[in-house]
Amino acid sequence: MIPPSFAYRAPASLKEALALIDESGDDAKFLAGGHSLLPMMKFRVSEPAVLIDLGGVPELQGIREAGDRIHIGPMSTENEIIGSALLQQKCPLLPEVARWIADPQVRNRGTIGGDVAHGDPANDHPAVMLALEADFVLRSSQGERVVPANEFYFGTYFTAMEANEVLAEIRVPVLGPGTGYAYKKLKRKTGDFAIAAACVLLTLDRGICKRIAITLTNVGPTPLRASAAEQALTGKAIDDAAVENAAQLAMQICDPAEDLRGDKEYKTHMAGEMVRRAIRQALERAKEAK
Amino acid sequence: MGILEDQQARIDQLGGIGCGRKRKEDARFIQGKGNYVDDVKLPGMLHADFVRSPYGHARIKSIDTSKALALPGVRAVLTAKDLAPLKLHWMPTLAGDVQAVLADEKVGFQYQEVAFVVADDRYIAADAVDLVKVEYEELPSITDPFHSMDPDAPVIRPDLDGKDTGAHGKRKHYNHIFTWEVGDKAETDRVFETAPVTVKEQIWYPRNHGMPLETCGSVASFDKVNGELKVWVTSQAPHVVRTVVSLLSGLDESKVHVVAPDIGGGFGVKVGVYPGYVCSIVASIVLGKPVKWIEDRVEHLAATAFGRDYHMTGELAADADGRIQAARFYVLADHGAFDSCADPTKWPAGFFNICTGSYDIKAAHVTVDGVYTNKTPGGVSYRCSFRVTEGSYVIERMIDVLAQKMGLDKAEIRLRNFIKPEQFPYQSALGWEYDSGSYEAGLRKVMEVCDYAALRREQEEKRKRGELMGIGLSTFTEIVGAGPTKICDILGVGMFDSCEIRIHPTGSAIARFGTKDQGQSHRTTYAQILATEVGIPSESIMIEEGDTDTAPYGLGTYGSRSTPTAGAAAARAGRKIRAKAQKIAAHLLEVAEDDLEWDIDRFVVKGVPDQAKTMKEIAWAAYNRTPPGLEPGLEAVEYYDPPNMTYPSGAYLCVVDIDRHTGEVKVRRFYALDDCGTRINPMVIDGQIHGGLTEAFAVAMGQELPYDKAGNLLGASLLDYFVPTAVETPRYETDFTVTPSPHHPIGAKGVGESPHVGGVSAFSNAVIDAFAHAGVTHLNMPYKSSTVWKTIHTLNLDQRA
Ligand SMILES: Cc1cc2nc3c(=O)[nH]c(=O)nc-3n(C[C@H](O)[C@H](O)[C@H](O)COP(=O)(O)OP(=O)(O)OC[C@H]3O[C@@H](n4cnc5c(N)ncnc54)[C@H](O)[C@@H]3O)c2cc1C
User: Fold this and answer.
1) Which helix (H) or strand (E) element contains residue A276?
2) Same domain, A90 and A114
3) Closest alpha carbon within chain A to B121
4) Contacts of B127 in chain A (CB under 8 A)
5) CATH number for position B622
6) Which terminal residue of chain A has fewer beta carbons within 10 Å of its beta carbon, N or C?
């Protein structure tokens, strides 16, 4: 539980942070809230020689509305996400998800940027980002590129981000008034990761499902998008049989890692169950909004 | 003010037995002012860390410490080779076995201690651990105790080669430790042959671990000039540690100073002596500097004493009315690679033979086989060091199994089998003499308050709708307060305990004990006992424990023994004080001793209430006006050897609802009625009950330390090991009956372990009861949602409408 020694740098601007990562090379890591990185360092699973603390970089803070999008600074903590009046109004899914993450202590330090950038399939935000069709703005000293969340995750701890890039902004859509949303997470206890979780976003048009996104947490090496389930529901009335069908289709794409929380069969079934519950809640919310 | 009001006011002012005053310990802890072993910082102190085995079973081919020693700031790297000349590479265990302090040529469990690195700071020590190169040759591991005694099983303990007899008799196999038998086998077998009804069930109580706030650790400081050794250590039994250290080191016991400061909970994990303690002491002696060793949480879970791991076969024989005629139990006990249990010497399976429970069972027999496996040694923790939990669990499960087989209600079968109040003192078939109990009254009260009949009706209706609801009962009897020195000793030291009290001239007092508080609230409750006995307010009585230089010798705190032993010593030391005080009062009042009677906080001349001397006045006089022939001062010492154990009991009821589609178990209601005899402080008792029930909840619902076939310990960190938070923890309702122990000076029994011992059965019985209609008679713990769901799914109970 004791990390090897490392150098600590605390840049005061994004430019400085990017210059530092360039000069430090592959052995450097950005430090956000530290609640994924530091435990890994204490177990000596990750042994960066240099930590570049993003805590003092003003460009990475703040949550702003920009037309029909909301731009979220990656250094926003989970508690800031929960407390954001803007998000509560325009993208209430995110504060709801943040409440499911860890415990109040972790949420005081852990950031939404760290949560999506880490590439841990157990983290909750990534699947939500897929459902929201968020965009990630990646910055390096060479410039900026925008990667859709749906093209960001390659494998466990393996994302589209290069070692010299920083996640500079997260862009999510403002959710229209009729949008139903839900995040259903099965977890063992407060502060625990998901055994399985499902995110659902949907809009209805006279009782017919116009658009739906169904994504899954912690049942594969990356967050999963249940495209077949989405297609099966799009353009249909969502009745019990349709929900069941979607759950079964979602289960088919699951490939969870076995651990003490459950084997593949259990976790797969729980993903299905979370899909059922999330669709039902999203549906209710969509109807209420009318 | 009338006489009665006046007396009540004086009683209230004493804050004695029965008052629910707040814990004296809390102010420090909630302000972060506790002083734990890891808080001890000494000038020039060095820091230590272990190189541990990555394998469950392996031969050590070589250890190369050169790179580690070359790291600046590293002072020493100890291996078995370094300890061998001192004969300290092995140490005796409390169970009559030996245990490697540092692995001697081979390792027998994953995380076993292989080398001890000492460095200038904790960081350098951790870096140096990575630089010690150990070459292993992996051997096949035994992780299933049912294969320990296979004819071709790997040899776990070559050091025992040729030793056919262990500390507890003949060994059947090289991986066998002991066989322990108790009860009348022939008679039991005979009853089973003819009984109208018999049931049998395989019940595993999985391996688990206590979770104290502070992990284990020690700071050893050897003073070369005076040849004295001081050790701060996370021990529940500091006096025993001092004796062991003296025996191992050859230092005079008077030159060994052991202190257990705040240790953040123990739960049995901190009864034994660990390699880390020994190594820090050796390192301090060798280097002449203080050496601190504190394990981290993973090491704590992986390398210090586990609890349970009993594979039990329970059998009951009953007549046609469900009256139990005989009980038969076989246990295969998984002890890990060394037998380092901490039971009293003559009890290799502790007091497991309490397993006839609260029931009048005339014939019983128990066999326990202890075997080695390639797992961490222990079998001590938690919150019941002496296998009472296992024994209580197996009978509380079996009586449910019997009820189910006979179609009897689970409360009814208990009522039919309880030992009746008039049967006490009750001789159990397995050798105990139960002191007192009111089992039926307790259960009836619980059934009434919770409307048991209505719960069963609700369950019936829910079942018709396919919903899963379970009702669990546990009507347990514990055995605590070890114990009478004629049957209980540790390393040959009898298991008495002690109190030494000194009343100061101005009427306040200090009392010291051989026990060691780790959350049991001794500062609060011992003072209350003394307040009532000597008539000095509990607020004015300081309680001290844990420093072997100042406290009288005692065997420590575990097994709910403090109140039954040291609490009794307190009462009796108090009575000695009072006897002397009476002499002084008689002298002051110029009457005969017999003319005086005790009145709350003073001696009064019989029939002349205004002629009295308060204890405060007597205390002053004890230092200047003692009667001729009586020595000055007001002190007393009591070493109390209990005549018997005490037998706390309880009736618990638990109601659970199970989510059929996720397997999640929700505890809807938990009602805990305890009978611990005289209640010293109801608030403290409630606190003990809440804590113990929460542990029981954790054990039943999620705690486990499984191994894979290769001997890897899975889940030894808080990422996996289940420690519930306040959010998951059920709400508890507590209640009580009072059946005093007839042999204890104030009638008190221990209570610390009851909620854990009784709680596990209640949670477990509730979950299994939810499946009773599907023919399920037993499910092994823990009831993680995944395993519960698997049961539901296999039984097709998750069909959707
Ligand atoms: C007890 C516990 C329980 C938890 N439970 C949950 C849970 O239920 N759900 C959940 O989702 N998470 C959970 N977490 C993880 C937690 O949310 C972390 O805070 C989060 O995963 C990482 O965010 P961070 O700000 O702490 O990032 P850090 O740990 O500082 O960084 C994580 C990784 O992301 C990189 N990184 C961070 N920010 C940037 C950036 N702007 N640009 C580029 N790279 C960056 C870092 O270099 C590092 O590799 C839990 C953590 C703990 C300790």
Assistant:
1) helix A264-289
2) yes
3) A2
4) 4-5
5) 3.30.365.10
6) C
